Amino acid sequence: MANKAAPDAPPGSAGGTPTRRYSERSRQAIFEAALALVGEVGYEKLTIEGIAARAGVGKQTIYRWWPSKAAVLLDAFGSAADAYEHEGLPDTGDLAADLKAVLRATVDEFNDAAWQAPYRALVAAGTNDEELSRSFVGRLMEPGIRLYVERLRAAREAGELDPDVDLRIGAEMLLSPFSQRWLMRTGELTHAFVDTLVDQVLRGLRRRD
């Protein structure tokens, strides 16, 4: 069977050719332009034409790879999430330490102004766009939740957690307060906060004996 690039891959993706390298540079430039612009003008005013101009590519290049500005943004965020999902959460044998390390890194990311503005714009747009909201959850949120579920599963199998614990709810217990604090700005997002969050959640999930 012939080697065939994925439908959303840049042209020339089937080998390490100059065309592929150029296409990947263009793809990265488009991602960077989309994230910068949505943070500056908001989702409603973001256009494919604006992204193309900022990235230095033709708008037809973008339309060849993505059907909409939402698809561009979801892929821009998702490209980083994909690598994270492939690696999985660390498993050093110390569940609390592993969760704290990951959530501390997430705090640093969510507090980065260059990343925070575009992400907030996309979340805000999703509140009024059901299709975008579903895509956002499926492309960005669910893969992250699955990583936490799998790390908790490993801990449960190792006898660290109560055998009857609901892994999905356990993952949401870790992530929901984090998201709430960040989205609603109900408090400062800090390393100390996530350390306390992990300790209190695990206190409820661990074996009673």
TrEMBL record:
Pfam families: TetR_C_11, TetR_N
Coiled-coil stretches noted in the UniProt entry, renumbered to this chain: none
Domain HTH tetR-type residue range list: 24-84
Record-linked InterPro entries: Homeodomain-like_sf, HTH-type_TetR-like_transc_reg, HTH_TetR, Tet_transcr_reg_TetR-rel_C_sf, TetR_C
Chain segments carrying region Disordered: 1-22
DNA-binding region, residue range(s): 47-66
Alphabetically ordered keywords of this record: DNA-binding, Transcription, Transcription regulation
Name by which UniProt lists this protein: TetR/AcrR family transcriptional regulator
Originating species: Streptomyces yunnanensis
